[in-house]
Sequence to fold (234 residues):
Amino acid sequence: MPSQSRAEIAVRPRGASVAILAALACVMIHGAAAQEIGRLYVSRPPPGSAFVRIAATTGLAPNTKMLVNTTPSALEGSDTASRYVAVVANRPVSILVGKTPTETSLVPLPGKFYTIAIEQAGQTLAAKVIDEGSGDSNDLKAQLRFFNLTPDCKAVLRIAEGPAVFDGTDFGDFKSRAINPVQAKLQADCNAGTAQIELPQLKSGDHYSLFLRKLNGTMVLSGQFDETEPYREQ
Fold:
């Protein structure tokens, strides 16, 4: 779900240059067609699969290696959550963060999406399962989701110096809505704490998640586009 830049040279080609450009255009067309065919035949999860991702409540080191069942996953760069991983529905899910197994009672239902919020609790890792439902989608609008990962807080997400977008979101819960593609500054309020983020320019069909956390005593509002790991048969 990410953007490109394009440069054009205002020179009129002649002779051999025209032939070279025509050949390049042909290669580009064939390359694009090959990409489309690759997308068409890419491996897809079996029908009725569920989708699980891991979010860091108190912060995990970037690129921490994780396993969802037997599928590798990771927090990339400054992301708060991993990509979604396809799992077999109606079977318990096992999570390994680094070398630490994380207990969770999650038995995912077919076609549903889940975020598992991981929190360091002494020498162990605690997991809180957030059931996101079937992942609403609207090709004409963008989908915005707000996750409150701050304990003892009923969070409000609003347009900075403007009206509320999501009101009263409990810890370990999320709210979602379809919005018109827009770019704006958003603010999350949590008790006496507050944090802001500049929302990127969303396009129709985009899914974007915001996460409110408390890191080292400071409120942090982070965001990322929602993505799914390419499916690989285990």
In short: Residues 212 and 221 are 5 Å apart (CA to CA).
